[in-house]
Amino acid sequence: FDETMHGSIDEINTMKLSGGAQINKIFYEQFPFEIQKAALKDGDSRTEIYYAIRNVLGVKTALFTPDLAFEMIVKRKISKLKEPALKCVDLVIDELTKVIRQCGEKMVSYPRLREEVERICSEHVREREQRAKDQILQLVDIELAYMNTYHEDFVGFANATQQTAEKTRVKSQNISNQLIRRGWMTVNLSFMRGGSKEHWFVLTSDNLSWYKDADERDKKFMLPLEELKLKDIEQGFMSRKYSYALFYLNGQNVYKDNKQLELMCDTQEEIDNWKASFLRAGVYPEQDLETQQAAKKNEDVQIDPQMERQIEIIRSLVDSYMGIVKKSVKDLIPKTVMFFMINDTKTFLQAELMARLYSSGNQNDLMEESPEESQRRDDLLKMYHA
């Protein structure tokens, strides 16, 4: 178990991620992706802030931006972090269960012992799961308990818009064209000769390029990522591949005469990996239809210039504070899962598993060999005496 979690040179899986490597991917790819998806489902907060300000003021007319509206919006957004955090625990539980079964394969000659070990370990993992989830919910509740507007990274009320714009400008200057991912994908374009073709793709922080092969000599096309969006495509009835599409919101062509570029992979896991990589590159999924219709409806709300300034100030404050909260959550959730589940399970296996096995019943029954193992031993004895 320890080698599977922390890495080992023995029995390395060269086909897919497993054990600790898969959990690392959950922490730093899938979990941030789920947080971003939750934020995208939330839609544009401008109209929400507008109604919050108006409802806080009631019949009064404000001379200053009400901070209660900021607190209401932030608390609602923080509450929505619970779902991706709990999903992170569920994903880790699934991987831990696989690791336990994988370790149990070492005891295949003793089926009753294997069954008892897997039962005891699974019960312990489920017990720790609830404690981990309770702790995670408590962490989110702690964030909800107090808005620390004196945090050193908080943009502050007076210079919210100015500092936010300056940070965006500096960030855009400092980010270089960094490599994010390489791999094979199939381009599904009907006009291409021979239909769908597999190409070698290289994703960087600025663009997506694809080549004829992995040598990266014959470049077919380079697609800038600015203003690019991503959306899911339902798997066709006859198709064996999973797909998604890249497109521009303004409707311009993505590649030649095509409004969208459909890309396909063999497994859903590969699709999720590419989506997480695109997320790191700043290419976000499109909002669902309901959110888009709500946003379009909200655009029709007439807002006076003074209210517009107040909305922009609060939105800058909300974005700044939520950036702090998300940074904290992304740091603490993996640590909490490691403490309550991974490290605790390791300690349990080393210190308590043997005692539980001895107290679980007749040890002779647990050490009963499988019929296959008994037959193999008898055959070897016959060969030896012969």
Structure description:
This protein has 386 residues and is of the alpha+beta class. The chain is built from 13 helices and 8 strands. A hairpin with a 7-residue loop joins β3 (207-211) and β4. α5 (82-104) packs parallel to α10. The longest helix has 47 residues, at 305-351.
Question: How are the elements arranged and paired?
Answer:
Elements: H1 2-6, H2 20-42, H3 46-57, H4 67-79, H5 82-104, H6 111-145, H7 160-174, E1 179-187, E2 197-204, E3 207-211, E4 219-224, E5 228-233, E6 242-248, E7 260-265, H8 268-280, E8 284-285, H9 289-298, H10 305-351, H11 353-358, H12 363-366, H13 371-385
* Average pLDDT, all residues: 77
The number of E-state strands comes to 8
Could you give the distance between the termini? 41 Å
Shape: flat
Spatial strand sequence of the major β-sheet: 4-3-2-1-7-6-5-8
Strand content: 5-15%
Helical run tally: 13
The stretches of 5 or more residues where confidence is low (pLDDT under 50) are 170-175, 288-292
Tell me the radius of gyration.
Answer: 27 Å
Major beta sheet summary? 8 strands, mixed
The level of helicity is 55-70%
Derived from helix and strand composition plus strand pairing, the structural class reads alpha+beta
| Strand and helix order | HHHHHHHEEEEEEEHEHHHHH
